[in-house]
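Researcher: Please translate sequence to structure tokens.
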Amino acid sequence: MGKSTPAAPDYTGAANAQAAASKENLITQNFANRPTINTPFGSQSWKTAATVDPSTGQNVTSWTQENTLNPSLKPALDAQIESQVGRSQLANSFMNRVGSEYSQPFDYQNLPAMTSGGQAGEIRTNVADYAPGLNTSFNFGGAPAAPTYDTGYRDRVAQSLMERMMPVQDYQNRQLQTQLSNQGFKLGSEGYKRGLDELAQRQAAERYNAFDTAGNEAQRMYGSQMGARQQGISEAMAQGNFGNQALGQAQGLDINAMNAMNAAQGQAFGLNQAYANQQNTLRQQAIAEQAQRRGMSLNEMNALLSGQQVQMPAMPQFNAAGRSETPNLMGAMQNTYQANLDAANARNAGMSNVFGGLTSLGAGGLAGGAFKF
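Model: Translation complete:
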């Protein structure tokens, strides 16, 4: 018995059958996606006709879409078209004016000239050096010399006071002695001695006061001389400080004058710059006006041409039918053939095993001499 295999399938027939199913599916889908649409603005419909495809020579169906406007809207559409035509004609009439304006070259000769603010003035930074004229030392040679406490003057004052005091004290002694004698006190007695002692104490106190007065007078004289010297020193220092103040004031005036000059230069430069900016702004304005005048006709023409276009009413959208899948005839045929082939291979393998076993048995019988037919 020989091995058997299934016959090869008809792939060409399966491919033709699948193509025919796909074509039929496409025809159905085309018909489903061409509905008749009716709206208040109009309607949309389709017409078919039998024709021949010039590229293939096959008979095909041609589709024609027809959009019908609602009769009541036709006057509005005609008015829009008429308005569009009028704007186009008006825009075309501007061509000569546009050509005339653009035929003239841009006039830069009669524009305001460009202006610059000029160079800023030189800033003054130099100030006179007043340092050499400053008084840093003072001459006190004109002031009285520094005084010292004059003890000789004190003694002279005290001597003068004592000289004026002695005659009075001598007279007082004589008077007291006479008085004591008249009162019965004898010379050398206790009462006599006590009276003279009391007078001596008073006179000693007067002499001490005279010495104290002389010291105060000497101190006063010393203070007066020291005050005179301090006054001279103060006047010398005041004179030096006055000179320094005068130099400082002169320097301040010089700095103020320098700042005023710099401020005036800055103000002048600012005014020049402002004038230049104004002139340049006028130039830019003149350029803008000239450019606007040149392009005005063109802009007007473009505005007319780009005005509202005629718009047809839009039809509403609908849910388009999707294309259904065609049967996979080629795949089914291949799977069937493969299953048949697998079954045939299984049968062939079984038969091979049977014949292989019989062959083994025959070989054993021949070897043992026991196998008989």
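Researcher: Any highlights?
Model: The beta strands are 37-39, 42-52, 59-69.
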